[in-house]
Amino acid sequence: MSKKNKDNKFKDNLITRSEEARKVRKIVSIIILALIVIFVIGGISGYNYIRSALEPVDATSEEEIQVEIPLGSSSSTIASILEENEVIKNGLIFRIYIKLNNESEFQAGNYSFTQSMDVDEIINNLKQGKVSLEPLYTITIPEGLTIEQIAEIYAEKLHFTKEEFIEVVDDDDYISELMDKYSVLPEDILNEEIYTPLEGYLYPATYDFYEEEPSIPSIIERMLMETENLIYQNLDAIENKNLTIHEVATFASLVEKEASNEEQRHEIAGVFYNRLEEGMPLQTDPTVAYAVGEHLETTLYEHLEEESPYNTYQVNGLPIGPIANFSRSSLLAVLEPTDSDYFYFLHDSEGKIHYAETLEEHNQNRDDFMN
């Protein structure tokens, strides 16, 4: 090949490569431009979406929406409640917003919101505890009550009967739904020998109601939520005691029924632990009354012979389940019992408790303080 031909071929190749490079640069430029456009559009869309999510649900609505924020609710729980009640548009965006703005210390309570409120108004109300409605009913459920007694209290003030309340708490399908929803409810409550599955799990407290006719399930679930909050606040201590949730609920119910003040609760819990460690039956009279199914002014020997998994004169260890609801104080007593060498105690007619290390001392206390 002549030199001239070689030069022409080199030029042709150079032109071809130059054209290919221009095409590549053009394609790359188009791709980069497309990515920039996509990024910008995505950013604008994302910004608009977030801004929209933080705006009022309906700026024209003044209809009041009643919302309960339970005690101990996390920001995630609060966001879910507000979204479910259509007070905010997006719970996730709400959580991110309050985190970025370091908002916290929200107050429990029953609130009245409208869909015209913006996110900052909602946050301010939650922080200041601005509860705008007066309750229609205020009902106190004392500690140490059975579900039957709880049902009686509600039936006296609300629109349903005691029997209707008990029918709901004993409904197997409903219990299954609750177990899926509330992890505080263990499989133990499904034992066929359990008298009432939710016994002990309905928390004693004063409850405000803002509806004319609150449903029985809504009442039950409010009480369950309070128990769940209490249990999970003390879960580490429960695990350190090598107790299950059902065991600690059962234990706390016994302490609740045997003691009348905080000091007694810790002392009696210590006695029960001593008996359990020695393999002695607990022999606590409230379990006999629960087994018999009636209030006993005096526990007779015939009552002690009642065959029941609740009767601690007939079974060793804890009964099969709680015999009443329990207070925070009784739960803490189980977790922090008084250390002693006592194995026995008895109540005198004035409400004082006398402790003993031996059966002989216990019998002497019986002679001294029960006659």
TrEMBL record:
<keyword id="KW-0961">Cell wall biogenesis/degradation</keyword>
<comment type="function">
    <text>Functions as a peptidoglycan terminase that cleaves nascent peptidoglycan strands endolytically to terminate their elongation.</text>
</comment>
<keyword id="KW-0472">Membrane</keyword>
<keyword id="KW-1133">Transmembrane helix</keyword>
<dbReference type="GO" id="GO:0008932">
    <property type="term" value="F:lytic endotransglycosylase activity"/>
</dbReference>
<keyword id="KW-1003">Cell membrane</keyword>
<dbReference type="Pfam" id="PF02618">
    <property type="entry name" value="YceG"/>
</dbReference>
<dbReference type="GO" id="GO:0009252">
    <property type="term" value="P:peptidoglycan biosynthetic process"/>
</dbReference>
<keyword id="KW-0456">Lyase</keyword>
<feature type="site" description="Important for catalytic activity">
    <location>
        <position position="258"/>
    </location>
</feature>
<comment type="similarity">
    <text>Belongs to the transglycosylase MltG family.</text>
</comment>
<dbReference type="InterPro" id="IPR003770">
    <property type="entry name" value="MLTG-like"/>
</dbReference>
<keyword id="KW-0812">Transmembrane</keyword>
<dbReference type="GO" id="GO:0005886">
    <property type="term" value="C:plasma membrane"/>
</dbReference>
<dbReference type="GO" id="GO:0071555">
    <property type="term" value="P:cell wall organization"/>
</dbReference>
<protein>
    <recommendedName>
        <fullName>Endolytic murein transglycosylase</fullName>
        <ecNumber>4.2.2.29</ecNumber>
    </recommendedName>
</protein>
<feature type="transmembrane region" description="Helical">
    <location>
        <begin position="27"/>
        <end position="50"/>
    </location>
</feature>
